[in-house]
Amino acid sequence: MSLPLCLSTIQRNLSLVIAVSFLMAGQTTAARMSDPAVEAQFIEAGIFGTGLTPRMPEDSVCPGITVGFGSLYTYRGKIREKRNGYIHTGTDWAMPKGTPVVAIADGRVSRRIEDLEHALGNHIVIKHTNVSSEYGNLSGLAVDQGQKVKRGQVIGYVGELGKRAVFVHLHLNVTGDRRIRVEAVKKNFKYRYDFLQFLSGDMTPIDPVKKHHRKVKVSYMDPSGKLHPPGAKVIWPFICQKKYK
């Protein structure tokens, strides 16, 4: 066999091996997540697809979610592997570096962490009445620990910093205080909530089997500081711009 033909054969076989590898990885993840014992561990920690999706405003432009809560896929559309925890435990928005991030609700800064080796890198944790919001992978921090903040206040800026950050984005967690051990990934998690559930104002536990399968109306702040709708308690983590006809 000539060298060009030999290389061509190797390339075809290599492509086949890569394709099979991705398929097997997907099957492994799917099989693990279909294991009732493993699935039960994640559900106990609040980590599962809720069925909630956002209903975006018609007159304004709000950044769309890139990777939703409970997703089995990465932002590149690949099946999540063990190093990614098999299932997404927060909500991601891919945004330009330096985009201002705002507090989603009134609260107090309980943690201000500058640690590039942490999974969330530079991050801010805001304690609300019954839950906390965690803003990760920030390129800059705009508030201090112990500081009171109002919804819509800039608390940091989008970045690509953190041990697991592979693209420029905001990673947002909404957590309770209780910690749950998930042996499948040998990690302790604070109980997780879908950000969209917190946004909806209805924190009634979601049935992981029936789910909600409903759209949540997006509340937000515009550049002038006005809330939509007026009096909204929880808002989108970015300022939304008015559409121009």
Plain-language structure description:
The chain is globular. The protein has one domain (35-242): Distorted Sandwich (Glucose Permease (Domain IIA)). It has 3 helices and 16 strands. It is α+β, with helices and mostly antiparallel strands and 245 residues long. Strands 3, 5, 6, 7, 9, 11 and 12 form a 7-stranded antiparallel sheet that branches. The protein has a 3-stranded antiparallel sheet with strand order 4-10-8, with no helix packed on it. 19% of the residues lie in helices and 29% in strands. The longest helix is centred in the N-terminal third of the chain and has 31 residues, at 3-33.
**CATH architecture group name:** Distorted Sandwich
User: How many domains, as an integer?
Assistant: 1
User: What is the name of the CATH class?
Assistant: Mainly Beta
Average pLDDT value? 84
DSSP helical segment count: 3
Which parts are unreliable, with pLDDT below 50 for 5 consecutive residues or more? 1-31
- CATH superfamily heading: Glucose Permease (Domain IIA)
Strand content: 25-35%
